[in-house]
Amino acid sequence: MSVNACNGFLKQQKEWINSQQSNPMTIVILNLMPNKKETERQFLNLLDSLDAEIAVQFIYPKTHHSKHTQAKDLAASYATFDEIKHQQIDGLIITGAPIEKLAFSEIDYIDELITIRNWAKTHVKQTINECWAAQQGLNQDFEIEKINLKQKLFGIYQASYLAEENELTKYCETITMPQSRHTKSLVDEQNLPKDLTVIASSPEAGPFILYSKKYHQLYISGHPEYDTHTLHNEYLRDLNQQKKIQKPKNYDTNQQLINTWQASSQQFYQNWSDLIKKEVLLYDTI
Question: How many distinct structural domains can be found in the chain?
């Protein structure tokens, strides 16, 4: 329907045009990715495809020493958690981050992230944790550890299992999703912690969408927001840096690139936004 950027680099540089809205849903995105503008555009485009009016606000962890973006530029374009924590938030999205090989304790902003996620459990209707953030969330909420993979999981993977009669999989015949990671969470699908449900999984990618109803948290191991050329660009980047990298699976970089995951990503996020509309915040009932 329409998405407005309340802040961010795209708005500041007039690369995203806002429209008039009446009563938009409020989504906060904690952007941990190194290319801030690219990530902003990907999420704004995905949310803009939904049947909802959405106002997006970008935040960053103030305790992080960024190597890719100047601190003064971040402060001028993004908000901090302290500036938004008193707001009523409909949805929170925590992006991935290229730090998955580090132990959680080695992340300079880990305490701030833990604080934000704990706050979200009582102040945000629904939260999505993507890629590395999903691994950190599963560790924080269920003490599920992560391990390094022998080879990077890189490509497009389709779910062979979808949870039936679930609001998050409504109208989804399957879910296809880009994956780009060197690690995985040690999720035992046959012996799940109480309150953790597998929404989608595949033999190669494992359980790549999980949900906690108690914490109203989604843990997504991939990147449904990626645009058509993102994996290709990552592949070329790693080649140029002389890293050991295989071509992304199920994604022909020698032919015309086709976005095979966009439709299911849009439907899944539509289901998520519909779920938000039905939620009642804990502090609304006190």
Answer: 1
